[in-house]
Amino acid sequence: MKPNVVVYNRIAEEQVKRIEEHCHVYQISKESKEFMNYLSKAEGIIGAGLKVDKKLLDHAPNLRIVSNVSAGYDNLDIEELTKRRIMAANTPDVLTETTADTIFGLLIAAARRMPELDSYVKSGKWQTKIMEDQFGVDVHHKTLGIIGMGRIGKAVAERAHYGFKMNILYHNRSRNEAAEKELHARYTDEDELLKHSDFVCLLAPLTPETVGLIGKREFHLMKKESIFINGGRGDLVIEEDLVQALKEKQIRAAGLDVYKQEPLGDNHPLLHMKNVVTLPHIGSATKETREKMAEAAVENLLQGIGGKVPPCLINREVL
Question: Where in this chain does the record put each D-isomer specific 2-hydroxyacid dehydrogenase NAD-binding domain (predicted)?
Answer without folding.
Answer: 104-283
